[in-house]
From TrEMBL:
<keyword id="KW-0812">Transmembrane</keyword>
<dbReference type="GO" id="GO:0016020">
    <property type="term" value="C:membrane"/>
</dbReference>
<dbReference type="InterPro" id="IPR001611">
    <property type="entry name" value="Leu-rich_rpt"/>
</dbReference>
<dbReference type="InterPro" id="IPR032675">
    <property type="entry name" value="LRR_dom_sf"/>
</dbReference>
<dbReference type="InterPro" id="IPR013210">
    <property type="entry name" value="LRR_N_plant-typ"/>
</dbReference>
<keyword id="KW-0472">Membrane</keyword>
<dbReference type="InterPro" id="IPR046956">
    <property type="entry name" value="RLP23-like"/>
</dbReference>
<protein>
    <recommendedName>
        <fullName>Leucine-rich repeat-containing N-terminal plant-type domain-containing protein</fullName>
    </recommendedName>
</protein>
<dbReference type="Pfam" id="PF00560">
    <property type="entry name" value="LRR_1"/>
</dbReference>
<feature type="signal peptide">
    <location>
        <begin position="1"/>
        <end position="24"/>
    </location>
</feature>
<keyword id="KW-0732">Signal</keyword>
<keyword id="KW-0433">Leucine-rich repeat</keyword>
<keyword id="KW-0325">Glycoprotein</keyword>
<feature type="domain" description="Leucine-rich repeat-containing N-terminal plant-type">
    <location>
        <begin position="38"/>
        <end position="75"/>
    </location>
</feature>
<keyword id="KW-0677">Repeat</keyword>
<keyword id="KW-1133">Transmembrane helix</keyword>
<dbReference type="Pfam" id="PF08263">
    <property type="entry name" value="LRRNT_2"/>
</dbReference>
Amino acid sequence: MVKLVLLIPGAALLLCLLISQTTSTPHVQVSASGACISSERDALLSFKASLLDPAGRLSSWQGEDCCQWKGVRCSNRTGHLIKLNLRNIDMDDYNYPNRSKPLSLSAGEMSSSLATLQHLRYLDLSWNDFNGTSIPVFLSSLKNLRYLNLSSARFSGRIPSELGNLSKLQYLDLSWNYYGNRSYIVDLAWLPRLSLLSHLDMSYVDLSSARDWFQMVNMLPSLKVLRLSLWTQQHHVC
């Protein structure tokens, strides 16, 4: 195993979550009280219904105004949901924390209702338990994402190349996913399409089949931080 952590110098990046949608869009229905868009509320409730929540972390997800729910943020201008942070904050990234109360799937796969959240700019599902399922391809339809953190969430299998469709992405963390087998990448031809990417963490992702990884990473003009693991058959070198 080879662990390589590359810190790429450069000016500090300001992660600006630009909210540029106009409030005059005809199909947007925002109540006078600032309540969230009803279709987006329904999408969150469908997602919640697909999860086991032993700690009651989603207990606030009830009532009309989803903008007031824990982990949810909406645009003050449009009412659209722009941030969903479901990171398990009880977890400690470095000390193998108590994993007794993560969100997990009640059925075989994650609800695709999240694909309804087309104005989403920030999504964090880290430190939960998605039961060894693959990272869902439908996440690649969230074209306004700037921040995506799927680390330590017990995904496995092939990381979808469709993530290259997230052309506005500035932060991507796919690290430390393991459920019997590590998540893996066959090739990284999709990576250079993320030209705004500043932070990329693929620690513990199996890149053994991605022979072109160095060339692809070197084609990211905005990259400031890169973390990845290069694995050999016998040992791990820093």
